[in-house]
UniProtKB/TrEMBL annotation:
Domain CRAL-TRIO: 62-119
GO cellular component: cytoplasm
Signal sequence, renumbered to the chain: none
Protein name: Uncharacterized protein
Entries under InterPro entries matching the protein: CRAL-TRIO_dom, CRAL-TRIO_dom_sf, GOLD_dom, GOLD_dom_sf, SEC14/CRAL-TRIO_domain
PROSITE patterns linked: CRAL_TRIO, GOLD
């Protein structure tokens, strides 16, 4: 926020609101993330900031020389503070730069530091996960074993082009938990959750956002801070041509039954 205290306060409050809306206090990483993408923090740099290492395996991150042309255009729209955080390297010079920012005993040996595992492994596999081949049982495929099409009690909804559809969900008590799962048979869809204040007024509790749920099941929960009528909305207003077929399941739990589950 360019060291503007008022802007920083606004950003912080929005962040807290977003965390409440998405119930992050109760969030638990899916098994696949715990197994393959769990700990990416190496330690802290010389200024005390956390160091996050993300191994990308065999993903080709090489950028052609022409990349510098569009980047010169894009960076004109970036704040100077943001530009200072971005650096590009060839196959040389990056280790020296890391050592300017990170103590040698903190930086793993394969990055140019001196840190190793107790057995001398330079990749520090006891510190950070180095990814690997993901087991096929975690793969998501449309109408595969992970599709909602195979789940008993799943509902189907057709959202015509340039329109929206709403589903009424009644929370009888404060603290009820609304849980949802849905997937789109083709394309993406806007999704949000709204609390009805009056018949003509609804306030968003999960901000409407476009999600690509074509090849996966989107899941989420909301802890109701107020009792009343909630509406799950599927928004296809932006699509002038395609209707969207939605498979969905909504469940409402009391706070006690949610904790038991």
């Amino acid at each position: 926020r360019q060291w503007d205290a008022n802007k920083a306060e606004i950003m912080f409050k929005k962040c807290i609101q977003w965390r409440r809306q998405n119930n992050l206090k109760e969030y638990q990483q899916p098994e696949i993330l715990q197994k393959y993408f769990h700990n990416m923090c190496i330690g802290n740099d010389k200024e005390g900031c956390p160091i996050i290492y993300i191994p990308i395996g065999k993903v080709d991150a090489n950028a052609p020389s022409l990349f510098s042309i569009p980047y010169r255009i894009v960076k004109n729209f970036l704040a100077p503070e943001t530009q200072e955080k971005i650096e590009f390297f060839s196959t040389e010079g990056w280790q020296e730069k890391l050592l300017e920012l990170i103590d040698t005993d903190v930086l793993p040996a394969f990055m140019g530091g001196t840190r190793t595992d107790p057995d001398g492994n330079p990749y520090c596999k006891t510190l950070v996960m180095q990814m690997g081949i993901i087991d096929g049982s975690y793969y998501l495929a449309q109408d595969g074993d992970n599709s909602l099409a195979h789940v008993p009690g799943v509902n189907t909804l057709l959202v015509p082009r340039s329109s929206t559809k709403r589903i009424l969900l009644r929370a009888e008590n404060v603290g009820c938990v609304i849980e949802w799962e849905f997937e789109v048979k083709a394309g993406d869809i806007g999704f949000g959750l709204f609390l009805e204040k009056t018949p003509d007024e609804r306030t968003p509790v999960v901000v409407l956002d476009r999600v690509d749920a074509k090849d996966c099941v989107v899941t989420g929960v909301y802890n109701c801070e107020k009792r009343g009528n909630y509406y799950a909305e599927f928004d296809n207003l932006y699509s002038w041509i395609k209707s969207k077929k939605i498979l969905y399941i909504f469940k409402i739990y009391s706070n006690e039954s949610w904790k038991r589950n």
